[in-house]
Amino acid sequence: MSMMQKSAWAEVSAKAVEHNIRTVKESLSKAPRFCAVVKADAYGHGLTGFARMLEERHLADMLAVGKLSELCKLMKADLPEDLQVLLLGTVPADEILAGISSGAINLERAIFSVYGKEQMQELHTAAKQKGITVKVHIRIDVWDSGMGMGPEEFLTFQKELFSLENLQICGVYSHLYTSYSEDKEVIKEELEKFASLERGILPEYRKQLTVHVLNSALVFKFPEYAFDMIRIGTAMYGLPCGTDAALIPAMKIYATVFDVREVSSSVPLSYQSEQASGTGGRRIARIMCGYWDSPLLLTQKEIRIRIGDKLFRPADEICMDNLCIDVTGEDTVKVGDVAVLMGEDGVTINEILMRNNIHYVHSEWMCMTAGRLEKTYL
Question: Residues 219, 294: one domain?
Fold first, then answer.
């Protein structure tokens, strides 16, 4: 690997992902379907590349995304026709039909979330006019301020909903915002409300449904609510999710040192240099990786870069395309060395979170990468 071939890149380990998925499944007493959440560019791991990696190793039964654009991107990817993609976000009926008419959406593979009775009726009317059938999962929210359909509304109108001939209702799910709460009693109460709804679905409808509620934060704590499918994102990537399970972070971020030189402390190294008035000299190593490549990781206050077995700090404010590292006193750092921004001792996700006082719930922020940061799938 030459510097010209790779200036900065992320490596995603299939072995780590396989280990994490196996760890999740081993926590369950039964084997429900596995829905891999790949929204937000697969949490920064690269949407289509990560999806292909899952498919090649037969690791997922379904994929889930958050935006229509993500769904359309997966429709274009070289993925099997039987690998369905669930859109968790809500989309107006006209946008769905436009995507279908343009060929951007494959009706056999795409499943849409519907959040309420009116939305379902609107989508049904539009689908009927086009003479098509659209697959949907109904989102249920078990608290009053939720976005989805309430349990009582669903059970009251279930016969009417399932009579909409141009909608194929193939799933019912919920997402608990209390998932990361420390109050297990509250979580249990909400899970029981969802379970009560599931028990109230008429048998003739229940048999055609995939019911799912568990996410990464819940699967280890409440495995008894696995139902037909689990919906896993954070744990699959090996990010902190409130469990002691031995998960392995899937991504590491690297860059090649392309320049090392002695620089006067009075020389500015960025647009708003804080050290340009100093005296003496500094030894500066540069990498072609900036905040645009990994926006949140490289905009924290306490940034460390590992080169060899030592940790270094940025020499100045990080720029869009490059980062200057202060390696003063370390003569062994040279052009061609590999700098580790995330993923090894000293720069693990947990260490980055602790240094910057970031709650583990937001650990995926650190994985946010730009499309120009090349991803290598190992």
Answer: no
